[in-house]
Structure formats: C-alpha cells, structure tokens
Amino acid sequence: MRKKTTLEKKPAGKSAGWFKACRVEDVPANGGACIRYGQDQIAVFYFTGRQQWFATQNLCPHRQQMSLSRGLTGDASGEPKVACPFHKKSFSLQTGDCLSDPGLYRIKTYPVKIEDGYVHIGVE
Asked: Mean per-residue pLDDT for 23-29?
C-alpha cells in the first residue's frame, strides 16, 4: 500500500517556488507516490533504470479520478509514461500529453529536483 504524504501548506496568493515533497525512499522504484500540497495532489514517479524523476497532477482527466500515482509506469518508444490504473489512458511524464488519445487529454507536469535525500517539486 502506498502512503500519502502531506507536507508544507501552499502559500495563499503567491508563487511558491520549490517545496520539499518527501524523502527519496518514500517513492517506490519504478513506481509512484501521491503527495498532497495544499488542496492539490501531485503524483511523483522514479524510473530507476533512467535515474529520472517526474511529477504530474494525480487526477486522471479521463474519468476525473485521483489515480495516476498508482498507475502503470513504462515507456512508449523511449518516452516515459504512466497509464491510469483504471482505464489505461497513457500520459507522457515529460510533456503531459495523452499518448493513447493525442490531443484529447493532457495532464500538468512539474519540475523535480533531488537535494539532500529529498524530492523537491517546483510549483507555481
């Protein structure tokens, strides 16, 4: 069972910059975790083979379910992706574009950096 992590509250009415989301070890290898930031849910993913981190909204726009952090990760022709665990809509973790229905859906992506064993997410 993947746990939700709640950290800093989102500052009201101003740009937040980077926030410390979780410890590196809180995100399963080749999987995702859900981070709560204020009223938002952000899905964080770590691809061990690529040693790359990604963050997106957790809401799947297809059926409006908070589920992407539990999605199936992989790649499509070298493009890192996540597929919704319910209806298998696939999204690029780099661009947010829907790979299974191009132009129909898109998810928000966030920049990620690792510092001192913590995952930091860039937010507006």
From this structure: 97
pTM of the shown model: 0.86
Tell me if 119 sits within 8 A of 25, measured CB to CB: no
Residue of higher predicted confidence among 56 and 14: 56
Asked if 100 and 109 touch (Cβ cutoff 8 Å), the reply is: no
What is the pLDDT averaged over residues 7-25? Answer: 71
Q: Tell me the CA end-to-end span of the chain in Å, nearest whole number.
A: 30
Q: Residue 53 domain-assigned? A: yes
Helices H / strands E in the chain, number of each: 0, 13
Q: How many domains does the chain have?
A: 1
Residue 119 DSSP SS3: strand
DSSP strand pairing (4-6 vs 31-37): parallel
